[in-house]
Amino acid sequence: MLNGSGVKIFAGTSHPELAEIIARRLGLPLAKAEVTKSGIGETNVRIAQSVREDDVYIINTGCAEVNTALMELCIMIHACKIASAKRITAVLPLFPYARQDKKDKSRAPITAKLVANMLQKSGCDHVITMDLHASQIQGFFDVPLYAEPSAILYIRTHFNLNDVVIVSPDAGGAKRATSIADRLGVDFALFHKERKKANEVSRMVLVGQVKDKIAILVDDMADTCGTLCLAAQHLAEANVAKVYAIVTHGILSGNALTAVEESILEKLIVTNTLPQRENQAKCSKIEVIDIGAVLAEVIRRSHYGESVSKLFHEVPY
Length: 317
Prior knowledge:
There is one protein chain. The chain is α/β, with parallel strands linked by helices. It contains 9 helices and 14 strands. The strands form 3 sheets. The chain has a 7-stranded mixed beta sheet with strand order 10-9-8-11-12-13-14. The longest helix has 17 residues, at 66-82. GO terms for molecular function: ATP binding; kinase activity; magnesium ion binding; ribose phosphate diphosphokinase activity. Belongs to the ribose-phosphate pyrophosphokinase family.
């Protein structure tokens, strides 16, 4: 809970449900802001109450119309800045353009860095985000955040740890998976994958012992779900008992829901960094972990100047 004096929580239009959960957890009402569009699609923002010398948190996420949500966030930050807010923190559960994190070919942009620059130039002092796609993006911000506490709590409460092996679907996610495996005291395995082109995997090789285990695939995001479903199939061929997947960001684009429903995955567990109600209605295998409590706790600690990193070494919320 927060003492409401000097703190304002604003919500953008991308994920109002999560903003309500966070505000309720903190014991604060959402501050009033009007966000509208002009006839030619320009975003208009009016902060409807004073933020002078306040600690302001603006909650928006990279979903639906990503460019609109990003511009809306930048305008809200700027509006609070010129209204004399003391400190402004952007709460971005899914950081937009996180997958465009490096110059991988000639004349390619590093769009994740551009987004970081936009937020900074808008007047943002800190950023709170969930499970960045690539570790180098952490250098852009003061407060990177991982969904690890929520994933660990789910695994501890739903599985017998003696039967579990944590599996990374690619080498890039090995650090994330080994961190979870180490904290749970369970075995770890990973896939080496080769791609013909983006979002199309040509070959996967499993490294590690998984026979007769409950395999839990962990990743930062599930987009088309091609990698997860292919990894699940390979795990089944390696004689695991069951296969689950836990991901932070359930983007679930294209035919992802159909692919998951028809796969051998028992469940795809995602967090609510993105709205998931419609996806759950369309796919019976989708289960949602609420990360509102974790984000609320990070906001509370940030406001009172307490350590955020200690959150990952305590009992998960």
